[in-house]
Amino acid sequence: xxxxxxxxxxxxxxxxxxxxxxxxxxxxxxxxxxxxxxxxxxxxxxxxxxxxxxxxxxxxxxxxxxxxxxxxxxxxxxxxxxxxxxxxxxxxxxxxxxxxxxxxxxxxxxxxxxxxxxxxxxxxxxxxxxxxxxxxxxxxxxxxxxxxxxxxxxxxxxxxxxxxxxxxxxxxxxxxxxxxxxxxxxxxxxxxxxxxxxxxxxxxxxxxxxxxxxxxxxxxxxxxxxxxxxxxxxxxxxxxxxxxxxxxxxxxxxxxxxxxxxxxxxxxxxxxxxxxxxxxxxxxxxxxxxxxxxxxxxxxxxxxxxxxxxxxxxxx
Length: 316
What we know:
Keywords: Dioxygenase, Oxidoreductase. Pfam families: Glyoxalase. This is Ring-cleaving dioxygenase. The chain has a single domain, classed as 2,3-Dihydroxybiphenyl 1,2-Dioxygenase, domain 1 (Roll). It has 5 helices and 16 strands. It has helices at 18-28, 91-100, 163-173, 225-237, 296-302; strands at residues 8-15, 32-39, 42-51, 60-65, 78-86, 106-110, 113-119, 125-130, 152-159, 177-182, 185-189, 197-201, 214-222, 246-247, 251-257, 263-271. The strands form 2 sheets. It has an 8-stranded mixed sheet.
């Protein structure tokens, strides 16, 4: 049976300031902070997850806020642009919102679609695109109203040091379909309705440098643990080198780096973010895995306070 991912599971990036990140992704973009936890490998650092009302696969962007992080450089071997999809007819709302909140956004187009491009406080490049497909988010916050909220990922633009080989991995390993070419880009489609359109810049790019304002990895969806096992075998049979299975509490993961330098993860859809706290209150409390729970007091003292707050331009 051919292995085909339905699209992006999540995207993980580095930033510096945890509160500024919450203010932008929750306060400006209107996403839900669905999980507040720690970097399991560095418990002195938050791991923050933002997505739709439930943190569904295909909607979640996650961050490691390192206050002392160096500034990264976006380039080859990275996700260059993270694409969010908004409901059809909401483009003018978002343009007006960014203008009102003093956020610089520029217009662009690719494959016949209008794009609204901007940067987060650390320089991470994101863009908004209108599409009919994909369920609407039921999460609203501040000035982001029902029918206008970000649905989830539209896809991503991959910057590669070896784009032909990256394209080969997308087709031959991940099971995406090459559907279009335009200028410097080739477009691939996955089978799902969110996080399903991946554009690759076909011009080889000089390697980027990791740090604040760059994406660490892009994760692709596996249906469940059984499918995950098939994926690991499939990746290995195609000459790549996946890690052992890693328990990330809210999904299981494997990682491998493709030839163009981009770190790929394959993550399971279950168990999801409501496994350790009620769905209604997700994101309000710092959640720790069992092995860190005895150290909660010490960990909480070392982390800066955080709050989800309405953007100043949305306040009465």
